[in-house]
Amino acid sequence: MSNLDSLTVHTKMSLIHNIVTHVMKFAQAKSTHVLSPALVETYSRLLVYSEIESLGIMIYKVQLLNHLHSLAAVPQTNQTQLHLCVQSTALKLIAGMGSAEVQPQLSRLPSEPKSLLSNESEELNKVLVLTIARAIHVTGSESLSGSWCKEILTTIMQHTPHSWSSFTLQCFPNVLADFFYHHQAPKENKSQLKRSVEEEYKNGKL
Question: How do residues 158-196 score in pLDDT, each as one tens digit?
């Protein structure tokens, strides 16, 4: 690790670019050999350096989340542990996003598929909202959180309508609090919700 620390930014970026190129060629060749553990470890360690993001390397998180959301959308009958593992991994990826990288990553979404958004999991989308709120508070970027943020929130409410308590809204940045104040999710019918839960439980036992 000390050797990597001593490298210049240009050298680090050149090294990780070469590693990524090598891995892509390796995957396309469909070789039966495996990558060297030292190469994988070096690549993982290089991802720690914040300057690497200028290459757009951290987009792998978005790609992985997109893949996890696709897996979660497939019916997993009698595969409860697998489903929980997928959801847990997605949760850690979202919650683990650094405050400084949230806005650059999410600002790409309006022109791309909503890779970070779950079509079914209200919990994951609420964690994403909390991550956005945390990033805005920490970076002080509320004035920059205009249309891209509202478009993402609108898509979240279309996929998984939900609401927040008044206490939570008071702690949100103004742009988020105003949005959820004007976009309250309709209250669910308890009897209908009970029937839906019972039906889902029956399907899960099949």
Answer: 888 898 988 999 999 888 999 998 888 777 677 777 887
CA 121 to chain centre: 12
Distance CA(84)–CA(143), nearest Å, equals: 37
- Only one residue has tokens 């680090």, namely 12
Return the residue matching tokens 């595969």: 79
C-alpha–C-alpha distance, residues 67 and 58, integer Å: 15
φ, ψ of residue 102 to 5 degrees: the values are -65, -50
State if pTM tops 0.70: no
DSSP reduced 3-state for 200: helix
Write the Ramachandran bin of 78: left for phi over 0, alpha for psi from -120 to 50, otherwise beta: left
Query: C-alpha 160: how far from its chain's center?
Result: 15
Q: Is 58 exposed, middle or buried (0-12, 13-18, 19+ CB in 10 A)?
A: middle
The secondary element (H helix, E strand) that includes residue 194 is helix 190-205
